[in-house]
UniProtKB/TrEMBL annotation:
Protein name: DUF2975 domain-containing protein
Keyword Transport (UniProt): no
Annotated TM spans: 12-34, 46-68, 88-104, 110-133
Listed Pfam families: DUF2975
């Protein structure tokens, strides 16, 4: 049981770290794109589009982390099998699909193999979140049935 608490504590710290460091990274994306990366690496004509894709996908990723923090809080303090978590998982799926769509759009002006990998990863994450939402919904229904029986 002690290992489980340590793992939960570590996971919460990791999610919080990613969330707050993600806010800093999103805030500094324009500085990184326009000031720190030389013009020989990124053409000036695509800097604005690249900045928009990175900012929007960063915001979507922060939303996913925010939602994970909420779900994790219910896991630690209350019952995780609630309809709010089902909605949260569906919203995470939408955010994942938004990131995938943003990077598909990025392929129109700057195609890289890494971009395709990001699209595949976030499309799979979106599908996984939808499946997990359905599993949670079924668990909520079973739990409610069981609560009424007892």
């Amino acid at each position: 049981m002690q290992n489980k608490k340590a793992l939960h504590r570590f996971t919460k710290i990791l999610i919080d770290f990613m969330f707050y460091s993600g806010i800093l990274v999103c805030a500094f994306v324009p500085v990184i794109i326009y000031k720190l990366i030389p013009y020989t690496f990124i053409a000036g004509s695509i800097r604005l589009q690249l900045t928009a894709v990175l900012m929007l996908s960063g915001i979507a990723a922060l939303y996913i982390l925010w939602t994970l923090r909420y779900i994790f809080k219910t896991l630690l303090h209350t019952d995780p099998f609630i309809l709010e978590n089902v909605d949260a998982l569906r919203k995470m799926a939408v955010a994942s699909f938004v990131i995938a769509a943003l990077y598909i759009t990025k392929c129109l002006f700057w195609f890289t193999l890494g971009t395709i990998i990001i699209v595949i990863i976030f499309a799979i994450a979106g599908l996984f979140s939808l499946v997990l939402a359905d599993v949670f919904k079924q668990a909520v229904q079973y739990k409610e049935e069981n609560d009424l029986t007892v």
